[in-house]
Amino acid sequence: MITVPAYVRAEVADGGPAGPWHHRQVVSAEERARRRQLRDAYKHAERTARAALMPLDKGELDDLVKFVDARVVAEGCDHTRRFTVQWAAEHQVSLDRLVEGLEEFDGYCDCEVVMNCDPDQIYG
Questions:
Q1: pTM for the structure as a whole
Q2: Are 22 and 12 in contact (CB under 8 A)?
Q3: Which of 74, 67, 47 is nearest to 113 (CA)?
Q4: Which terminus has fewer CB within 10 Å in the chain: N or C?
Q5: Which InterPro entries would you find in this protein's record (predicted)?
């Protein structure tokens, strides 16, 4: 059984912090709302900036991911971008820019393109 020192019991009973390790700052509802709004605006700006690096629009990226997914399921991933390269050639998409955009979202091979480059996550 743990014995709680009297000074801790007294501070807790008085509504004070339970020792120097327990400091809680009271924030008003308005301040919490303001902080939430700032956080959401920051996340939106970050997502928009990252999405700008992707040379495909949401529909094209969705087509790419579906194409690559079907090929990876059928043939497996050899940890290259062979299906991505095939799709890019068929759709006259600059491979250099596409690779740069996919790498921003950790799409370093075909299976990672499927797992990490979800259009809903990238474009919101």
A1: 0.67
A2: no
A3: 67
A4: N
A5: DUF2695
